[in-house]
Amino acid sequence: QAFLDAGAQEAASFLTNGTLVFSVGARRSPDRVLATASTRLHAVCGLVEPGFLRTVPYLADLVAADPFATVVDASVYAYCVTFLHPAAQVPATQSLCSRRGDVEVFRFTDTEALSLSRKIGNTPGSPNALLEKQLGLPATTRNWNTVRRLVLKHA
Which one-letter DSSP state was computed for residue 28? Predict the structure, then answer.
C-alpha cells in the first residue's frame, strides 16, 4: 500500500523476501516513488531496510546474459546476485572471496555482484555480509532463481 500511496500505478510483492515490483506513469519518477514509500514504511512500521531499484527490462538483459552458464561446481549451495548501493565503488578486481571460502564473487557489473555461496558445515556463505563489509554500504542479495522467476513473470 505504501507504494500505491507514494504514486505507483501498480505494486506487487514478489515472494516473501522483500522483493517488490511496481510501475509508475510516464510523469512519475520511480526513484521518488521508492523514496516516498520507504519513508512511509519507516514511519508506519519502523522498516529501515534500504531499497534498490532496477527496471524489469534491465533485469531481463541480465538474465539473458546468463552469467552463471559457465559455472560447473558441485559445491555451490546458491547462485546469487547482490544489488549494490548506488554510491558503491566496484572493486577493480573482478573477483572476491571470503576467508572461509564460503562466498566467491566472480564478477561485478557497475551495479551488481554475481557470486557463488557454498555451505561449509551447517552454514551457507553470505554474499551480502561480505559485500557490505567490503564496500561499507548497504546491499541486498537475491538468489539467482528469484531474479529469473521475476523476469519470467513480469517481462
Answer: S
pLDDT tens, residue by residue, 122-137: 999 999 999 999 999 9
Distance (Å, whole) CA 2 – CA 146:
23
CA distances from 79 to 25, 32, 35 (A): 34, 31, 29
Query: Grid coordinates representing 109?
Result: 557489473
Largest alpha-carbon pair distance within the chain?
51
Q: Which residues contact 14 (CB under 8 A, 6 or more apart)?
A: 20, 21, 146, 149, 150, 153, 154
Half-sphere exposure in the Cβ direction for 145 (13 Å, CA): 4
**pLDDT per position as a tens digit, 85-116:** 999 998 888 789 999 999 999 999 999 999 99
Q: Is the pTM of this model over 0.85?
A: yes
Amino acid in position 26: A
Residues near 3 by beta carbon (within 8 Å), at least 6 away in sequence? 11, 20, 22, 33, 34, 37
